[in-house]
């Protein structure tokens, strides 16, 4: 056998295959997960690039440190301390090649083959892929409208001492769009503090809130093994690949630093310096408001269209931010079958299947609204609604 077991067991991106079919010009696609290009502050970045070259010269083009550009780590620490009353220092931060890299590195550092990872059900496909490389055992814990099913979380932890970490996306979750409630966060904290496990709060969408109040992290500032992952992908640019990991656990951060060194030495320093220069010279809050105003309008259009065109038996989440809506069809209806019919009608979405570690032919699906105008959203949902009315209920 030529290839390793671990690569053969890692799911290849189902979404990528879907996107291939969905990207035909005449297809209305709710399948992707791309930020709207309005979120790229191209003029500001262009200025920052020119100035950075003038100011920093060769430093921009040289090798750099694994932990990342200190002023950028300071900026990130200040942002979290101001917004969440935390006491993060630059030493608690590692800049990563997108937060995606942090997912991969953390699992490399913590998990031996066969050991356990708690994931949300459904969960972020990219994390499931990244974790698969360490050949873990997945323990899915059900996600409800309020957040994680806390009883199931507690039972899973009690019964499986091999569990190394818990992976959560508490704000505007991918794929469901839900946000863990304050009560749910508190209840998770009460459970997790009793166990020697790492709690990851992956938060690339947290800034994209247009409704309701910002909620505190579950573990940051009070759980020893708390990790926050953040990213500039959804608020500045994903192309620069700038993400970060924050933890007060020095030992964990050191090990992840070593793993990163082995993987890519350091994150692209050109991107780090340019993004930092952009951040200090521009008003990020105003920029983010521009993004959330658009996403709110798009989400509202999608929800209004679903109210109008979908059979009343179909339920869906109503996000307060982020990029996704999660639809639950009638019991027994396959989202994959619906996908095939929808493609005939030239409208695409992602069937729920790849977001589960142990389920197939599910009756759930993900819709993304960030790249279509309200008119196109209405037309796409109308087409889906027509198909949904034609599917015989079981
Ligand atoms: N976590 C979640 C929940 C995501 O949705 C994404 C992007 N799709 C990532 C992490 C990775 O983001 P990046 O590597 O661009 O920071």
Automatic annotation (TrEMBL):
This is 2-aminoadipate transaminase. CDD domains: AAT_like (cd00609). Belongs to the class-I pyridoxal-phosphate-dependent aminotransferase family. Keywords: Aminotransferase, Pyridoxal phosphate, Transferase. Gene3D superfamilies: Aspartate Aminotransferase, domain 1, Type I PLP-dependent aspartate aminotransferase-like (Major domain). It holds the Pfam family Aminotran_1_2. GO terms for biological process: alpha-amino acid metabolic process. It comes from Ureibacillus acetophenoni. Residues 46-384 form the Aminotransferase class I/classII large domain. InterPro entries: Aminotransferase_I/II_large (IPR004839), Class-I_PLP-dep_aminotransf (IPR050859), PyrdxlP-dep_Trfase (IPR015424), PyrdxlP-dep_Trfase_major (IPR015421), PyrdxlP-dep_Trfase_small (IPR015422). Homodimer. GO terms for molecular function: pyridoxal phosphate binding; transaminase activity. The keyword Transferase applies. The keyword Lyase does not apply. Its cofactor is pyridoxal 5'-phosphate.
């Amino acid at each position: 056998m030529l290839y390793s077991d671990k690569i053969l067991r890692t799911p290849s991106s189902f979404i990528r295959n879907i996107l291939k079919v969905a990207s035909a010009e005449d297809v209305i696609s709710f399948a992707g997960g791309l930020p709207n290009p309005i979120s790229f502050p191209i003029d500001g970045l262009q200025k920052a690039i020119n100035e950075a070259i003038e100011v920093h010269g060769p430093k921009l083009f040289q090798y750099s440190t694994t932990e990342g550009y200190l002023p950028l780590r300071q900026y990130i620490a200040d942002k979290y301390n101001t917004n969440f009353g935390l006491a993060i220092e630059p030493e608690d931060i590692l800049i990563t090649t997108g937060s995606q890299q942090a997912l991969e590195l953390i699992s490399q550092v913590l998990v031996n083959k066969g050991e356990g990872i708690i994931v949300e059900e459904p969960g972020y496909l990219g994390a499931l892929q990244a974790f698969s490389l360490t050949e873990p055992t997945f323990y899915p814990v059900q996600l409800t409208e309020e957040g994680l099913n806390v009883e199931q979380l507690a039972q899973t932890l009690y019964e499986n001492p091999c569990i190394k970490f818990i992976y959560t996306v508490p704000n505007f979750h991918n794929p469901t769009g839900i946000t863990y409630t304050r009560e749910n966060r508190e209840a998770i904290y009460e459970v997790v503090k009793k166990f020697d496990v790492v709690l990851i709060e992956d938060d690339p969408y947290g800034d994209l809130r247009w409704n309701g109040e910002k909620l505190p992290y579950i573990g940051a500032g009070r759980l020893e093994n708390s990790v926050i992952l953040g990213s500039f992908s959804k608020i500045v640019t994903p192309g620069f690949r700038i993400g970060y990991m924050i933890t007060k656990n020095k030992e964990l951060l050191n090990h992840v630093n070593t793993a990163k060194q082995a993987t890519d030495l350091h994150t692209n320093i050109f991107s780090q310096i340019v993004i930092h220069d952009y951040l200090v010279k521009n008003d990020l809050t105003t920029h983010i408001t521009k993004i959330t105003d658009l996403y709110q309008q798009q989400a509202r259009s999608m929800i209004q269209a679903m109210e109008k065109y979908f059979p009343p038996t179909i339920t869906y989440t109503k996000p307060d931010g982020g990029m996704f809506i999660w639809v639950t069809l009638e019991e027994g209806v396959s989202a994959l079958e619906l996908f095939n019919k929808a493609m005939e009608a030239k409208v695409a979405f992602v069937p729920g299947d790849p977001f589960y570690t142990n389920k197939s032919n599910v009756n759930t699906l993900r819709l993304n609204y960030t790249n279509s105008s309200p008119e196109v959203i209405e037309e796409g949902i109308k087409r889906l609604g027509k198909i949904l009315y034609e599917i015989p209920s079981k």
